[in-house]
Amino acid sequence: MNNPHLHLRIETTKKSRIKELDTEPIPFGKIFSDHMLVANYSQGNWQDVQIIPYGPIDLSPATSALHYGQAIFEGMKAYKNSNGEPLLFRPDANHQRINQSAERLCMPAIPESIFIDGLKELIKLDDDWIPNKNGSVLYIRPIYFAVDESVGLKPSDSYKFIIISCPVGAYYSHPVKLIVTEKYVRAFEGGTGAAKVAGNYAASLIADREAKEKGYDNVIWLDGIHRRYIEECGTMNLAFVIDGVVVTPKLTGTILAGITRDSVLTLCRDWGIPVEERAIAIDEIVQAYHQGTLTEAFGMGTAATIAHISTIGYQGEDMIYLR
Ligand code: COI
Question: Which atom of ligand 1 sits closest to the CA of residue 29?
């Protein structure tokens, strides 16, 4: 699959927009770095791999991803170390996950030479865009979608893979207020819940909007069958500290296998903090809250980082941890 001889064409920008980075605080996902990586797949091959100035792309209105949603993405980050060298956080894990999402949507795998080697070239070129302010980083957004010009339903024969990046500040700038939704469901066994599929996020927007109308930041999804077991938040995985144990929903195929989640659990285990990955009923959280054994709740995600949860709303009651 990997093609070490892949040719990468690089066209640098004539005029950097780096001055846009002077904004304080840096907004999340609004300012894009100078360059992007673009690769095309057609006739069974990856081709035209290039790094070019960031800008709009030409698409036909018949582009099949726009109709049937054969579209996936990733979220990852680059930092600078104390010597000012750029560091990517676990890019292999994102590469593996995008190919799992691709398989779920009948899309060809992206070779390492494009995803990893191409990304490294892009970040080298745009490394001035990695902010050196505390709490700010370069967020990297790989996107991969079907581009057949066709309105018949079938897996596309041609695809576009693009990597853009944007310097970002905090996704949540305050402790997060979440509400459990009993009205909407994010995923079912056999569905696409574990894949980073654009449609999962589109389908979540109505619940998110209703949560915001009630003064919350986002929703907590319950499982689609019993409507009882906690799944994830949609922008991040969730964990609770009950009786000194970090408890998080098990990966059952309906929630995203977060890379930050995996890193947090690995660190906890290394530090001797007990961790349980298991089914967590919402009633268990309510009970632990009333008994005083629930001492903390937090989200884990690339964009969200570790987000403290201040409030969980459920059936008209607010459980408040941080006052
Ligand atoms: C990420 O954490 O990278 C995501 O893709 C979540 C998104 C809602 C910003």
Answer: 9
